[in-house]
Each structure stands twice: as C-alpha cells, then as structure tokens.
Automatic annotation (TrEMBL):
Residues 1-22 form the signal peptide. Residues 33-195 form the DJ-1/PfpI domain. The keyword Signal applies. PANTHER family: ARAC-FAMILY TRANSCRIPTIONAL REGULATOR, THIJ_PFPI FAMILY PROTEIN (AFU_ORTHOLOGUE AFUA_5G14240). The keyword Translocase does not apply. It comes from Mycena belliarum. Keywords: Glutamine amidotransferase, Signal. This is Class I glutamine amidotransferase-like protein. It holds the Pfam family DJ-1_PfpI.
C-alpha cells in the first residue's frame, strides 16, 4: 500500500470523507471569474456564494477579470426598454495583468451575443491550457466554444438558447438533456441557476460530498444533484 492510499484510508476511517476525496484531485487555490457587459448575475453570484463559504475552510483567492478596470454591469450597453436596472461588479484585474489561475468561470448572459468579445475569447483560449479546472455557466459555453476549448468535448448550455449557442461550437458534442456536463477538467452547465448546481457538483467531486452538503445546508440551498435530469430540454423541444 502506497503513502497516498494509506493517507486516504486514514482520512476515511477518521470520517474526513471530503479530505479523502481531495487526495484524488488537486485543490484549486486561485479562482478567476470573467466579467463582461451583459453578464447574467446569477451565473456569477450563485457559484460565488457557494465558494464564499468554501473559502472559510480552504485557502482561496478570487480575481474578477475583465477587459478594463471599469465596473461591469449586468445590462448590455443597449437596453431595448431604456431601463436603468443593472448590478455592477468591480474587476480586480484586466486580461493583460490577470494572475495565474487554477479555476476559471465564464458566465453567460445577453452579453455573450456581443460582437466585441475578441479579447474575452482570446483570454479564455490562452488561459485554459494552464488551468486545473474550467467552468462555464449558461451561454458562457458559447465563449468557450469560440475559443476552441470545447472542440471534441461533451458540453451543455442554456436550453432556451441551445440552438444559437451550440452553433458556435460545430466541433463540440452538445448534450441536450443535462443540468451540467463534465468532460475531463471542463464543467459546463445549463442556464442561469444550473451554475450553482454545477458548482456544487464540482465541489462534491473535488472536495467531497460532505463538504458540498455542509456548504449547501449553510446556504439553505436545495441542490439539484442529478446532472442528467433536465426538464427544460423538453420544455424547449430539444
């Protein structure tokens, strides 16, 4: 029996199931989230709220990365109703000075349809090879697809926008019925709220189910634990 196997056995026998699971996978320290005008709020803040609690148990650093250091809003620059209703997130870094990352999250939202996302796409393409883990939420999969990260991979995305988003990735095997999909170190989720469920799926696999359950209970959040159960695919005739 090797040292790693002995460590896992000791952790399991001591009840530290989460730590035993962590022995199988590298634990990320440096987390990054991309922000662009018109991002979907819950795509970012749902997963981040779970990670906020996780950061009380593990050493973690967070970087909010955007094209510039200007605050980034949830509403696209052009609103069809001229509504003044938006939340803003303040970047900590730009694409030019972002620190090394272990985990990168790309949200979706109406801003993924913008024509000026080249710097965002380039950053994803250039950063992915050095990541331990990569996650997209909702139509954020379209950015990853345009970056070539999803070529030859299984992936999913928002079901209402499935046909539009999947067209950006002709070399991707798009899964219609999935709350989230895991392919290697890439996690893609369905629309909006699915990002939180996908993050908890990630947390369960990397840190242990006990850690994920404890964190969800702390949020009083009822998890969607079956990655393949997706009624929204049927709703949109996929």
């Amino acid at each position: 029996m090797g040292v790693t196997d002995l460590l896992k056995l000791l952790l399991l026998s001591s009840g530290f199931v989460g730590l035993a699971a962590a022995a199988d996978s590298p634990i990320p320290v440096n987390f990054g989230v991309i922000a662009f005008p018109g991002f979907e709020a819950l795509d970012i803040f749902g997963p981040l709220d779970a990670l906020n609690l996780l950061a009380y148990k593990y050493p973690m650093n967070l970087s909010i990365i955007a094209a510039t250091m200007d605050p980034v809003g949830t509403t696209p620059r052009i609103n069809p109703k001229n509504s003044n209703f938006s939340e803003f997130i303040v970047p900590t870094h730009t694409f030019e000075n972002a620190p090394p990352l272990d985990f990168l999250l790309v949200p979706g939202g109406p801003g993924t349809r913008a024509t000026n996302l080249n710097s965002t796409i380039d950053f994803v393409r250039d950063t992915y090879p050095s990541l331990q883990y990569f996650m997209t939420v909702c139509t954020g999969a379209g950015i990853a697809a345009r970056a070539g990260v999803l070529d030859g991979k299984n992936a999913t995305t928002n079901k209402r926008a499935f046909k539009e988003t999947s067209a950006w990735g002709p070399k991707t095997n798009w899964i219609t019925h999935a709350r989230w999909v895991v392919d290697g170190n890439i996690w893609t989720t369905s629309g909006v709220s699915a990002g939180t469920d996908g993050l908890f799926g990630f947390m369960s696999q990397i840190y242990g189910e006990d850690v994920a359950l404890n964190t969800a209970n702390g949020m009083e959040y009822v998890r969607w634990t079956n990655a393949s159960y997706d009624p929204f695919a049927d709703l949109y005739d996929l």
